Amino acid sequence: MTSSDAFGVRIAGAGSAVPDRRLTNADLEKLMDTSDEWIVQRTGIRERRVVDQEVEGTFTLSRDALRRALDDAGMDARDLDQIIVATVTAEMTCPSTACRISAELGATPAGAFDLVAACSGFVYGINVADALMRAGHCRTIAVIGCDAMSTVIDYSERSVSILFGDAAGAVVLAREENDPTVGCIYSSTQADGSMWESLYMPRRSQEVPLQDSDNPIKLGCLRMNGREIYRFAITKFREVIQEALDATGLGVDDISQFVCHQSNLRILENAKQKLGLPDDKVHINIDRYGNSSAGSVGLCFDQLWQAGKIRRGDHVLFVAFGGGLTWAVSVWKI
Prior knowledge:
By secondary structure, the chain is of the alpha/beta class. It has one domain (about 1-334): Peroxisomal Thiolase, Chain A, domain 1. The chain is about 30% helix and about 25% strand. Strands 1-7-6-4-5 form a five-stranded mixed sheet, sandwiched between helices. Helix 7 (about 225-250) packs parallel to helix 8.
């Protein structure tokens, strides 16, 4: 979809939250047959953040990220019309994480719901939020992407466990009456459900496909066909970025920052090379935070925002892909 409405949608503030605890590659060497060299060579990851499950989780990280985004925007939770939380690691399916955050921060009677799109969740969320605001349903929306992936990882198996960490990123969107050019100028939100078996979290044995029946990863934990996901991602990443540039008539030079999901350093480097993206326009933090799923893009945006690398008037491209399989892109004038 493209937008051409009489008002804009402004990113009023951003915030993020990560656990204090670091899980390094050296720590993983003590848990499984792996090495720092092996992990860095294949993923670019040196450490990741993980929650203390006794006191932290998706709810607390999401709440803290939103609180910081509200502070950054100079707003109160009571100013919100809607809260959207993108996550696959909610502690409870009922009530939603969004409703719990609303209660904690005092956002009643704002609408609140969770959205499940795996690593694409944050970009799905801002695309949905922009559509709700353009349709006139809301004036202010908080979008949070958060996953505590360490809670759904089997640390006895190395293929998946080395990749993921925990983080939350949030933005507060507000209606902009004075400048209709501000906000989302292009978005695409898509999926291919036929590939769901490549990245999934089965809770019961009957949910496991026959061809994956000998998988040693415990039920309730994330399973991934790494080769299939890599092939999908390395192609889709480039495709959706190019499609967004073509649709908006913008070139690489016109984009201030490409805010990319941090899936694998090799995938990021491939996209940079094939599309000619300069190093200073592609923020990379996977070496320190790993793949934080729905938290990834929001965390990157907040780090860029707080560092002053994204300014009013800049064009920013958000892109992510994940389980489902899902993918999404969004181009914004900040």
